[in-house]
Predict the 3D structure of the following.
Amino acid sequence: MPLLRASRINPIFVGMVERPRLQDFAAHRTRLEEKMGGRYTLALVSTIVALIANPLAGNSQVINLFIDLWVFFTLGFLILSLRSGNFKRLEVILLSSSTMGMGIANLCRSWLGWDMDLVFLYLLPFAVLFFFHCAWLIVKSVFQEAQVTTDLLCGVVLAYLLIGIAWVCIYSFIDLTVVDAFSIGADADKRAAFVYFSFVTLTTLGYGDILPVAEIARTAAYLQAVTGVMFGAIFVAALVGNWKNPNAK
């Protein structure tokens, strides 16, 4: 009988232990967001630091791995805050497969010297969906806000950067599937080159040092350029429409 009672109490006891842990985690995250100025500001700072640190890391695969994991987990926390605890199955699949899969693939390639192109070929589409999904959640939440704040502006910038990162994954996928899809220097780091090419194309700057050669690469490039132009125009109109003077009655 004592064993039976213990088995009945045990699940309740576990639930009582787990709930405070989740509440403590949420409280720590909320305090950190308040110190940084908001949830978008925290994720934006993390993403910018990752983009700056990526080329500075050079050929260190370990540092690049930690940078990737940092960005993925930061965006995962952002999704948690946007969903207010309602973490759907699609987001779990995208986050876990992209983070763990690409993290393990990077480890095997950098430390064991394995050829992981086939693994990246299957994981890159999930990464594309993950970044676009994050950008969509941010855009959706921005349009639901009634007043423009500094944190809201950081959210717009963050969504813009996530679109650029998503296209980095698209270009990497094209490079793996199409031979000589891009004209890049033989000794160039393709990862850094695609990051550079993506944001240069997104801003419609275009120096011409990296050229899309294959038809699918050209199509992806002009679609990204159109997306960058339309994103700026739509969000400027939306933010101006939602702008409210705090001194107005």
